[in-house]
Amino acid sequence: MTILKRNWLKKETPKNKDISALFKELKKEIPVIHQQGEPPLKDSHSFAQYMCDLCSTPYPKSGLRQCVLCGRWACEHCWKEEFYTCKSCAGIIKIHTLK
Ligand SMILES: [Zn+2]
Ligand SMILES: [Zn+2]
């Protein structure tokens, strides 16, 4: 996994630079749902489960990741590894990168 990621980063360096510049722009544009480091919402029906902010499905905390742009907590289905953001922000990134 670590090796894969390193190779990927190496190959994609020019694109990654664009992405980080784009992230700066997008941070002004995308409303922040949760501050970075803020915990996900607890599922009111079960203990030790948290809600995915996108599909409202309960997951253990380890199953959720926080989007670096909007701060939403996303489950594996709502997460885009490509941009390290939630599905919703990835859609916005795609629109911007297509321009
Ligand atoms: Zn989800
Ligand atoms: Zn997001």
Structure in words:
There is one protein chain. By secondary structure, this protein is of the alpha+beta class. It has one domain. Helix content is 39%, strand content 12%. The protein contains three helices and six strands. It has helices at residues 2-11, 13-29, 87-98, and strands at residues 50-51, 58-59, 65-66, 73-74, 79-80, 85-86. The strands form three sheets. Strands 1-2 form a two-stranded antiparallel sheet. The chain has a two-stranded antiparallel ribbon with strand order 3-4. Helix 2 packs across helix 3 (87-98). The model has no long low-confidence stretch (mean pLDDT 87). Bound molecules: zinc ion (2 copies). One zinc ion binds at residues 52, 54-55, 57, 74-75, 77-78. One zinc ion binds at residues 67, 69-70, 72, 85-86, 88-89.
> Average pLDDT across residues?
87
**What percentage of the residues does DSSP assign to strands (E)?**
5-15%
Can you give the helix content as a percent range? 25-40%
Distance between the termini: 32 Å
Q: What structural category characterises the helix and strand content?
A: alpha+beta
Features:
99 residues; binds zinc ion; two-stranded antiparallel sheet; alpha+beta
Summed up, what is this model?
With 99 residues, the chain is α+β, with helices and mostly antiparallel strands. The protein contains three helices and six strands.
Question: Secondary structure elements and their pairing?
Answer:
Blueprint: H1 2-11, H2 13-29, E1 50-51, E2 58-59, E3 65-66, E4 73-74, E5 79-80, E6 85-86, H3 87-98
Antiparallel strand pairs: 1-2, 3-4, 5-6
Helix pairs in contact: 2-3
Bound molecules: zinc ion (2 copies).
One zinc ion is lined by residues 67, 69-70, 72, 85-86, 88-89.
